[in-house]
Design a protein that fits this description.
single chain, alpha/beta, Rossmann fold
Length: 658
């Protein structure tokens, strides 16, 4: 632990609330202190109400904010006197507490205050910091942890036994503070939970946290450890095997999930431990992690491992539900969120979104270190099942999940779009992202760095079979498979009469528009066949298939061949629950295929001006890339769930097609 405090940066803070946000971000930058919404901080101050009366206020971290990025607006202003009075009640249900928090909040637009607001209010210091520091949790979760904590910190910190967050914990801490605090008391340790520090100044409270956690780190560093096991070289799971794992977990969850891989040296070393089962099958480092990682990870990757995990989870639910809500509590999905593959030395993180996977992976990386360090201190100990169940099915935690609302249509699904850098391909990427998919965008051209965590661009020459094989392996390994394939890449050469075509011109068009798509479909089939909700392929054809025009023989023939390829695939792949449909757009002019020269040439061949040519259809409308993309996305959704082999024109109406 090193202090990150910068006096020049702190001097830019205009008031205590800005200082509170600044020092909170310093805590949040260190993931060994807080992870993904964990921890909370507060500052006490004043605010004038509409009557000009000055009220004492607790500014406490609001729900949904991470300490790493929190700003002053992320702190919810709550009447301090109201919170202190709540602490004196004999009892207070969770829902009563939430309602009282909202009633005492001075800004209706502010996020809900931290569930620990009462606890923060009862501590008689301006600045209060709370983290789930890895080092402190390591000590509290080791055999003889409470004695070790007391030996280390003496009476500088009050030691609190594990209690559920909220009213029960706040009331106990207030009484413990009144009973045990003295001039030298600078904080408290919550067993199996974390650590608090406090002070009148932001810097003092922050640096107390750094110092106290550093002391715990030094205890851990002196623990004797056996020499690490030699890590046998292991091959990663194949992409197809990973897709099979994803399908089994998705089936257990009842919805599609993403699966990411972590084969770091630390992961492989941890999974080589002889006691990996004993360490991993107890519980999480802190109870709040259970919402992200479930109680324990799944060991193994085959169907039997999934079935066993699901059965064990259902048993865990049945064993504990009557004590915490009974029939009113509904079981969440029983699928794992972390999978440990000893054979391949891999940690798989499971989630409905890429963010969920990243969070689960990061939490478990820290959990592994905590477990190893606690074991070196004398033995890793997690909370018993009933305590963990209480948090997993806590009304307030389940309410957080409910706030997320209904997931977008393609949440948990993986799409691959070719020709993704511009035009129809770029529009397809946008339409699929808007519907919740993670999207791999493939193009021969370099694409700008992705700003969306759900988008992953890959450069690939689709005319190179070896490059296609490598690209598909890379793309499907990212999240565990493939659900949606949009075949859009192609070329639209300038008009050339048959009598003027040379063999090289003809072969180039067929190679890019037909051969490359055939190779890509072949490579993608094993993954589409393992898509949790059935694979979907949309082929971007052309109006030239049913109604070719002069000067476009090579293009028309290539799109006709691609259409026949898709029709045969629809017949062959139906048994694998893959549906294949075709869109025949016409005159989509906002694409890279249509240069000004080609547009003028094609318009002239019909005796039209460019403007007339743009809307040369029965409805007199212009077709845009987004129109094609939206139809392609809908063809992958439930409306077309029972349709395959269809050819849908998107041309504004063409008399020759009709």
């Amino acid at each position: 632990m090193n202090s990150l405090w910068n006096e020049n940066e702190a001097a830019n803070c205009r008031n205590d609330l800005e200082l509170r946000a600044y020092s909170s971000r310093l805590l949040g930058q260190d993931k060994s202190l807080v992870l993904h919404g964990g921890g909370n901080t507060s500052v006490k101050g004043t605010r004038a109400n509409i009557f000009g009366e000055v009220e004492d206020v607790l500014f406490v971290k609001g729900s949904g904010w991470d300490l790493e990025t929190i700003q002053p607006r992320g702190f919810t202003p709550v009447r301090l006197s109201h919170l202190v009075r709540l602490a004196r009640l004999n009892s207070l249900t969770d829902m009563q507490m939430v309602n009282e928090f909202r009633a005492a909040t001075l800004d209706p637009a502010a996020p809900g205050p931290s569930v620990e607001a009462i606890l923060h209010a009862t501590i008689p210091f301006r600045f209060v910091d709370h983290t789930h520091a890895d080092a402190v949790v390591t000590l509290t979760n080791s055999s003889g942890g409470q004695a070790r904590i007391q030996d280390l910190y003496g009476d500088r910190l009050i030691v609190i036994p594990y209690l559920m967050p909220g009213f029960e914990l706040a009331q106990y801490c207030a009484r413990a503070f009144a009973r045990e605090a003295h001039a030298g008391t600078v904080g408290m340790v919550l067993m199996n939970h974390g650590i608090f520090t406090w002070a009148e100044e932001a810097r003092t409270s922050y640096e107390l946290m750094v110092s106290l956690v550093g002391e715990a780190e030094r205890v851990i560093a002196t623990a004797s450890r056996s020499a690490p096991s030699a890590v046998a070289a292991s091959e990663p799971m194949t992409p197809v095997e990973k897709a099979e794992l994803r399908r089994e977990i998705s089936s257990a969850a009842g919805f599609p999930v993403l699966v990411t891989s972590n084969r770091s040296a630390n992961v492989q070393r941890f999974l080589s431990r002889a006691d990996v089962t004993q360490l991993t099958q107890q519980g999480p480092a802190t109870p709040d992690h259970i919402i992200r990682t479930k109680r324990i990870p799944m060991l193994g990757t085959d169907k039997l491992a999934v079935d066993t995990y699901v059965a064990d989870y259902k048993r865990y639910f049945a064993d504990n539900v009557q004590a915490y809500g009974g029939d009113a509590v509904r079981m969440v999905d029983p699928a794992p969120r972390v999978v440990l593959d000893v054979n391949h030395g891999t940690l798989f993180a499971v989630g409905r979104t890429a963010k969920d996977c990243r969070i689960a992976n990061e939490i478990y990386e820290h959990t592994m270190r905590i477990q190893e360090n606690a074991e070196a201190l004398g033995g890793w100990r997690s909370l018993p099942q009933n305590r963990l169940f209480q948090v997993e099915y806590w009304d307030l935690e389940q309410a957080k999940l409910a706030l997320a609302g209904k997931p977008a249509l393609f949440t948990g699904e993986i799409a691959l779009v070719t020709g993704a850098a511009r035009g129809i391909g770029a529009a397809c990427v946008a339409s699929l992202l808007a519907r919740g998919a993670v999207v791999i965008g493939v193009d021969i051209a370099a694409q700008p760095a992705a700003t969306n965590a759900n988008y992953h661009p890959i450069i690939c020459d689709l005319a190179d079979d070896a490059a296609v094989d490598a690209m598909v392996s890379k793309a499907t390994a990212l999240f565990g498979g493939l659900d949606i394939l949009i075949l859009n890449a192609g070329i639209f050469p300038s008009g050339k009469a048959i009598a003027q075509m040379d063999a090289e011109f003809w072969r180039k068009v067929q190679t890019i528009n037909v051969d490359s798509n055939a190779a890509l479909m072949r490579c993608c089939h094993p993954f589409l066949a393992r898509a949790p909700q059935g694979g979907r392929v949309v082929v971007v054809g052309s109006k030239n298939v049913p109604a070719p025009g002069p000067g476009a023989a090579a293009y028309s023939a290539s799109k006709a061949a691609l259409t026949q390829l898709a029709r045969v695939a629809a017949m062959e792949w139906g048994v694998d629950h893959i549906r294949v449909n075709i869109i025949h757009p016409n005159a989509v002019f906002d694409t890279g295929l249509w240069t000004d020269d080609i547009l003028r040439s094609r318009a002239a061949s019909y005796g039209l001006t460019v403007e007339q040519y743009r809307k040369n259809n029965i409805l007199g409308v212009e077709i845009a890339s987004r129109d094609v993309a939206e139809l392609a996305a809908e063809m992958c959704g439930p409306i077309f769930a029972k349709t395959t082999g269809a050819q849908v024109p998107l041309d504004g109406g063409n008399d020759r097609v009709i």
